[in-house]
Amino acid sequence: MRIQFISRAVQQAVSSQASAPLKLKTASSLTQHFAAAHNCSQSPQPSLTAPLDHGQRASRFKSLLCKVYDSVASSFAKTKYFLQLDAWAMSGKAGDHCWKAVAAIKQAYRSGSSTLDLSGRGLRSLPDLSPLHSVMQLDLRNNHLSSLERIASLTQLKTLILAGCSSTDDPRSFQSKPLDSLLPLSKLHELQELDLSFCAITDSGSLQHLTELTQLTKLNLNDNRIQSDGRLLSFAKLTGLKELNLARCNIPNLELFLDWTELNQLTKLDLSNNRAQSGKLWHFVSRLDGLEELSLNYCGLLEISGLDFLRNLTKLDLMVNSIQSVAPLSLLTDLQHLRLDFNPTLKTVSQLSSLTKLKTLNLDYCELTDLEWLQNLKNLEGENNPIYSAPITWYNEDFQKDASLGRKEALTGAGPVKIKTLISLAIFNSRLNVTWARENRAFIEQLLIAADGDPRLKLDRDELHDEATRWGA
To answer: Do the Cβ atoms of 347 and 369 come closer than 8 Å?
Structure first.
């Protein structure tokens, strides 16, 4: 049977329908294999080896013919697929930069690559991708796709990026049309990471197709205008889901959007830019006690009761809210990174003194008046805070890495300053308290001298010098 196929393949290769390069390649391949087969059957055997009998020669000849068959079949399959890709690119329905996509697909086919990047090609459709058996990571971000049917054949996919795939150049536009259906994604049973951000998804019911992706660990849905269809979305089958991003989805009521009781395994959750009703934290958040990272910026929060149950949190973002008290955070002793900037109603954070593992804290544009409690911080950022009681001893051995204090209305200090233990100090546009400046003129001069050639010190030299001389004794 294979010999008959080879005969037909040879006839096709030398026919007028075959391209010149294909004729040469096929003829060369056949010549080499048949020459080897002929030599195998005709050439004498080495004297140290027992001569092959007729059956052994026939078996070797058959094996070589099979290699010829595989070589010819592979060559014709590749040529056929490449012609299909070219026809798709010339159809006028592919997209603006489709030839770059064709080149990338051909290269992935030749090399057997596990990664295929087709991002930003302006594609309006996809060619047949089924021959790309080895592709495990596919990037299609920023294209104008309406259908995902061609993706369903890539059953080995583990990572799929569809961010920004909509029918317009700007996926943020209200004229953007969503993908026709997410149903083809339900066939990608090996998928672990899926990015559907900026895809103009509006119907929460379409997300139900994702429940078949039982291997999913990361799901990004940020910047979609998702509206509930009245049914509670269930992700019960996604037992391995660790990271979920719903930022800027403007979901009217998150409590009724998803059955959160099924997501206790979550470790990272982003709910930014989803408005909390009455300024109170959603009840389901306090039940997700496995969370390690949580983002709640731009949520209109007035209070954060319930966060005290999330004892595993190491990173928390609460910027741009109207929080008045941070008392619930006092029990989060594993917290390392905290953002509280742009909370204009926040006047004190003294309850955070128990957070000894805290490394970074951002307090920009709050109404703080007291920071004496601070210790063990590696990086402090705070701009436009009217600090009235801030001991300069912050800048000694208590700090392990960096202390950065921005524009303050007043900066006072008490106690000795150990310049030798200073690791890093930044004072920009600060107005020193008169009394402190008089008592610490020598220290200011010390800083100015030490700043020369010392990359650790970043000082507003002119300002410090003026303060030292203006109120000097």
So the answer is: yes
- Using the Cα atoms of residue 165, residue 168, residue 172 and residue 175 in order, give the sign of their dihedral: negative
Tell me if 260 sits within 8 A of 283, measured CB to CB. Answer: no
CB atoms within 10 A of CB 4: 8
* Residue 231 reports pLDDT greater than 90: no
Q: Which long-range contacts (CB under 8 A, 24 or more apart) does 439-442 make?
A: 440/392, 440/413, 441/468, 441/471, 441/472, 441/473
Q: Is 167 exposed, middle or buried (0-12, 13-18, 19+ CB in 10 A)?
A: middle
Instruction: Between 148 and 51, name the one with better pLDDT.
Output: 148
At 397-451, the pLDDT tens digits run: 333 333 443 333 333 333 333 333 333 333 333 334 444 445 555 555 555 554 4
Beta bridge mates, 294:
269, 316
User: How long, in residues, is the chain?
Assistant: 473
pTM listed for this prediction: 0.71
Q: In this structure, are residues 163 and 153 in contact, taking their beta carbons and an 8 Å threshold?
A: no
Domains of the chain in start order, with CATH, are: 94-266 (3.80.10.10)
* Buried/exposed 388-407: b ≥16 CB within 10 Å, e otherwise: eebebbbbbeebeebbebbe
pLDDT at 94: 84
Return mean pLDDT, the chain. 74
- Given a cut of 90, whether residue 166 has pLDDT beyond it is no
Kindly tell me if the per-residue pLDDT of 62 is higher than 90.
Answer: no
Q: Note whether 243 and 267 are within 8 A (CB).
A: yes
Q: Which of 12-16, 159-163, 313-317 has the lowest mean pLDDT?
A: 12-16
